[in-house]
Amino acid sequence: MKEGTAISATKSLPPLDPRDPAGLGDLFTEDEKAIADAVRRVCADRIDPYVGEWFERGELPDVRGLAKDLGSLGVLGMHLEGYGCAGMSATEYGLACLELEATDSGIRSLVSVQGSLAMFAIWKWGSEEQKQQWLPSMAAGDAIGCFGLTEPDAGSDPASMRTRARRDGDDWILDGRKMWITNGSVADVAVVWAQTDKGVRGFVVPTDTPGFSAPEIKHKMSLRASVTSELVLDGVRLPADAVLPEVTGLKGPLSCLNEARFGIVWGSVGAARSCLQAAMAYAEDRTQFGKPISAFQLTQQKLVDMTLEYTKALLLAIHLGRRKDAGVLRPEQVSMGKLNNVREAIEICRTARTILGANGISLEYPVIRHMNNLESVLTYEGTVEMHTLVVGQAITGQSAFR
Predict the structure, then answer these.
(1) What is the mean pLDDT of residues 391-401?
(2) Are residues 371 and 276 in the same domain?
(3) Would 402 be classed as within a structural domain?
(4) Cα-Cα-Cα-Cα dihedral sign, residues 175, 181, 187, 193
(5) Same domain as 389, residue 300
(6) What's the CA gap between 389 and 119, in Å, rounded?
(7) Are residues 227 and 166 in the same domain?
(8) In this predicted structure, what is the pLDDT of residue 3?
(9) Domain boundary among 193, 227, 248
(10) What is the pLDDT of residue 350?
(11) Do residue 299 and residue 212 come from a single domain?
């Protein structure tokens, strides 16, 4: 017998973790694991005991207190450099999004909109004065931001936006409406995109500016533990230096959306994990015909299929995270991640619901809440149709958007 064969035959294998049967934990550094653990602990203490009630009531109480807690943790704009931001890696940011959405999609949305949309827009395209004015307080959670792009009649086609900005002397005057804006009613600053005579421009709008209002959208059946608003701009007068100086055209808002989509690639995996773990625990505890339902073949098939899709989604997220950290991640690859991972996550949640039976629709368990939330995640930051066409164009060279 060869020496290597003898060693391999006698060496004991590590135990298999039922929650990570493929051993994907080995792919993370100790620092990455520590960040995931820190976010998980804060969520377990600050959010998990209450989020089901918040969802049922359709509100997110004490948003400012929660934002400060998240700022103290360092997750607001955590992947940005300078200005009080943590400067962490894309993979570390992804793991934070995973843990936040394992708690609730609305909580991850709060962080994503703050860091990947509002803060990123100012960090990437703003003036030094705008960065100094807003980014440190936003990173600390002392100021909350929102991002105004989507309109009542312009969702997947932002080029057709009707919000306009016109010059009046040295000032800008903004008029228009934005819709489905996370954080809108509690924001201190809004990054608003508008048509101008020279193309789409972004504006940094303090929300106490006369003519700006943000009525909250009610009667949602998804993302209920989240503040969602309309932005109303009626003759909002801004100084000349309110415009983001470093970008003109849709490149500006689309670059921000790409940052937020990357967080969704990871966050959706967190929602899937939460439902998978709930289904596993329930199948072990629930007894029918004299044994736990986890002992039945059909239930095991569901659990195995869910585990496989969760594992593949996490592998894809890790791969895209490593590419982003290496500076070689393309927008089309983010579209692949968002399209696949949200689609598989929602299917995992629906399958978990069947394992829980009637209990699956109760807020005593997280499953129905994640199911409903993912219906929104499936649509925002690019619909299934849009990401399908992005990937289709990437692999065929043919555009099918029009």
Answers:
(1) 96
(2) yes
(3) no
(4) negative
(5) yes
(6) 28
(7) yes
(8) 54
(9) 248
(10) 98
(11) no
pLDDT greater than 80 at residue 181: yes
DSSP collapsed to 3 states, 311-378: HHHHHHHHHHHHHHHCCCCCHHHHHHHHHHHHHHHHHHHHHHHHHHHHHHHCCCCCHHHHHHHHHHHC
Vertex 342, ends 61 and 281: CA angle to 5°? 75
| Dihedrals phi, psi of 151, to nearest 5 degrees | -125, 165
Residue 185, Cβ density class (10 Å: 0-12 exposed, 13-18 middle, ≥19 buried)? buried
Residue 259 a catalytic site member: no
Q: Give the residue carrying structure tokens 């705008």.
A: 130
CATH value at residue 204: 2.40.110.10
Q: What is the pLDDT of residue 11?
A: 78
Active-site pick, 53, 81, 381, 385: 381
Question: Who contacts 69 (Cβ-Cβ below 8 Å, separation ≥6)?
Answer: 42, 46, 141
Residue 6 has pLDDT above 60, yes or no: no
106 and 44, same structural domain?
yes
Domain limit, last residue, from 139, 156, 189 = 139
Q: Which domain holds residue 200?
A: 145-248
Question: What single DSSP character describes residue 247?
Answer: -
For residues 362 and 233, state if they share a domain.
no
Write out the two tokens for 1.
Answer: 């017998």
What is the spatial distance between Cα 88 and Cα 75, in angstroms, rounded to a whole number?
Answer: 9
In a domain, residue 12? The reply is no
Quick count: other Cβ atoms within 10 Å of Cβ 291?
9
Separation of alpha carbons 150 and 226, rounded Å: 17
Whether residue 84 sits in one domain with residue 32: yes
Q: Are residues 74 and 162 in the same domain?
A: no
Give me the DSSP letters along 19-82: TBTT-GGGGS-HHHHHHHHHHHHHHHHHTTTTHHHHHHHT----HHHHHHHHHHHT-TTTTS-S
- Does any domain span residue 1? no
CA-closest candidate to residue 360, choices 270, 267, 271, 275: 275
Segment 232-242 shows an average pLDDT of: 98
Number of domains comprising the chain: 3
Query: Which residues, at least 6 apart from 281, have a Cβ–Cβ distance to it below 8 Å?
Result: none
Per-residue pLDDT tens over the stretch 255-305: 999 999 999 999 999 999 999 999 999 999 999 999 999 999 999 999 999
